Amino acid sequence: MITISGLGKSVGSTPLLSNVSLELPSGKILGIIGPSGNGKTTLLLCLSGLLSFDSGRITVGNTSITAEESAQRSEKLWQFRRQSGIVFQHLHLFPHLTVLQNITEAPVHVNGTPKAMAEKQARQLLEKLGIDQHRNKYPEELSGGEQQRVAILRAIAMNPDVLLLDEPTSALDPVRSGDVRTLLQDYAAAGHTVVIVSHSVRFLKGFADFLAFMGKSELIEINETQTLLENPADERTMEFLRYSEMQ
Amino acid sequence: MHSLAAYGSPVLRWGADPSGGAPYVYADPANPQRYTGFDYDFAEALARQMGMAEEFVPTDWESIVASLNRKEFDVIINGFEPTEDRAREVLFSKPYYLFRLQLTVRNDNTLITSLEDCKTHSKSVGTLVNCAASRLLEKGGYRIKGYQDPVGAYQDLELGRVDAVLMDVAAEMFYARHNPKLKPAGEPFHTGAYVVGLRKGDTLLVSRVNAAIDSLANNGTTERIFRKWQLWNDEQLKLRTGGKKVYEVTSSEFNWSEGLVKLLKAAAVTVLLAFGAMIIAVILGIPLALGQSKGGRLARILCTVYIEFFRGTPVLVQLLFLYFGLPVVGITLPGWLTAIAGLGLNYAAYESQVYRTAFQAVPERQWQVAYSLGMRPGHAFRRIIFPQAFRIALPPMTNDFVALFKDTSTAFAIAVWELATAYRELANATQSYLGIGLIVCLYYLAMSLPLAHYAHRLERKLQRKSTGILSSGTEQ
Question: Per the CB < 8 Å rule, is B373 touching A84?
Answer without folding.
Answer: no
